[in-house]
Amino acid sequence: MVGASVAYFLARRGVAVTVIERTGVACAASGKSGGFLALDWCDGSPLGPLARASFALHAELAKELGTDYGYRRMDTFMMAARENGALAGGHRASAPRWLDGSGIVTATLGSIETTAQVTPARFTAALLDAAQARGTKLRMAVVEDVARRNGAASGVVTADGETLEGDAVVLAMGPWTGRLAGRVKLPSIYGLKGYSVTLAAPDVPAHALFVDYRTADGRALEPEIFPRPEGDVYVCGMADPAPLPDSPELVEVNDDSCAVLARAAGRVSTTLAEARIVRRQACYRPVTDDGLPLIGRVPGLRGAYVATGHGPWGILNAPATGLAMAELVADGAASLVDLRAFDPARLTLGARPL
Ligand SMILES: Cc1cc2nc3c(=O)[nH]c(=O)nc-3n(C[C@H](O)[C@H](O)[C@H](O)COP(=O)(O)OP(=O)(O)OC[C@H]3O[C@@H](n4cnc5c(N)ncnc54)[C@H](O)[C@@H]3O)c2cc1C
Predict the structure, then answer these.
(1) CA–CA separation, 311 and 120 (whole Å)
(2) Taking the model in full, what pTM does it have?
(3) Candidates 22, 27, 33, 41: which one to mutate for ligand 1, based on the most atoms within 8 Å of Cβ?
């Protein structure tokens, strides 16, 4: 998502771009995440201005790209539910009729003014298609190092030993960007695993749900439920400390974790209780030591840039990241947002990835 966005905004400026992907477009978190977007949920943190700029860009891109990738505004609710039994009292905020399970709506978190969604895999593909229509090339290869000439980045070296030349290199390999930490000076980048299931449930309204959930064995979970315009309902959660595998195709799905998510969804709505599971997935979000993304120059290597570490907000913040990075690469500075809080040099460099 982040790489596709950087490519699109560079291509929109007329820059010749090559996207290098090892496995498949949107094969990892960017194809398997929620795609939930919020205008103001990052306010009060250094991410606030980036998120606000990105929320606005999402609306513009939905028109500009001219492709349907599931962008729509949503209402968003907080709920509480238990795997066993019902909670005392009824809904504490006005509740849509389809939330007819044993859960209760405890608050309204967002409206069509402040919350929205995309279907992430389709959005990533739409951005890359639009970039390709402007001349961007997509190349399948495994990047292993940054090539250097006269102390500056001059391209990338692939696992086949080939050097692909470029005037600038943007590292946007999600949690796997950390695998280059031994080759270039980068702070630690980790992967945090999560699961999702997709339920076949057409005609569920555009209402996003954040659920405070307790399992029968006492675990406190926070599943997120996003009905999609394609006629299914995406449910995610269940953080797992499993280490990041070497490549996206090695990510393992745990059926028990997926079953917990499907059961949780079934507790808030009888429609979801009856719905068939059509997909079980797992993916790793890229995270950093201070929870903020890395968007900026790779310290000590002219012409090399990094854009990753967006944690739970990579789909929301990809458009503003892409536009700001395109400005940084092409103009030498970003004007859309102040990137200083995201400068990789703020963190200890050279730390080993987990
Ligand atoms: C369960 C879950 C739900 C989420 N829900 C939301 C949400 O609702 N809203 C939101 O905003 N965010 C959400 N996120 C976060 C979001 O999905 C991520 O922040 C975002 O997808 C990260 O995008 P990325 O492009 O940085 O990384 P990735 O999607 O991981 O992409 C990295 C790409 O680099 C490729 N690659 C890796 N190594 C190499 C190499 N050596 N050479 C070439 N290519 C390589 C990979 O194949 C992959 O395609 C969620 C995350 C998870 C896990």
Answers:
(1) 15
(2) 0.97
(3) 33
Nearest CA owner, ligand 1 atom 5: 34
Residue pair 263/231 in contact by the 8 Å Cβ criterion: no
Residue range 176-199: mean pLDDT, rounded: 95
Using alpha carbons, list the distances in angstroms from residue 333 to 72, 90, 166, 206. 32, 53, 19, 38
Q: HSE-up of 185 (CA within 13 Å, CB side)? A: 14
Q: What is the pLDDT of residue 353?
A: 44
Whether residue 20 has its Cβ less than 6 Å from ligand 1: yes
Stated as kind and residue range, the H or E segment containing 72 is strand 72-73
DSSP code of residue 92: S
**Does residue 3 surpass a pLDDT of 60?**
yes
What is the rounded distance in angstroms from the CA atom of residue 75 to the CA atom of residue 72? 10
User: H or E stretch including 299?
Assistant: none
pLDDT of 89 over the 90 cut: no
Tens of pLDDT along 246-268? 999 999 999 999 999 999 999 99
End-to-end CA distance of the chain: 23
Phi, psi of 180 (to 5 degrees): -95, 0
Long-range CB pairs of 147-151, under 8 A, 24+ apart, other chains included: 148/301, 151/301, 151/302
* Predicted local confidence at residue 354, as pLDDT: 44
Amino acid letter, residue 25: V
Give the pairing of strands 152-158 and 163-165. Answer: antiparallel
Host H or E run for residue 132? helix 120-133
What pLDDT sits at residue 181? 84
The pLDDT, as a whole number, for residue 351 is 55
- The Å distance, Cα 315 to ligand 1 centre, comes to 8
Q: Whose CA is nearest to atom 31 of ligand 1?
A: 174
- Provide the 3-class DSSP secondary structure of residue 189: strand
For 53-65, b/e burial (b = at least 16 CB within 10 A) is bbbebbeebbeeb
Measure CA 89 to chain center. Answer: 36
Specify the length of the chain in residues. Answer: 354
**Encoded amino acid at 253, one letter:** V
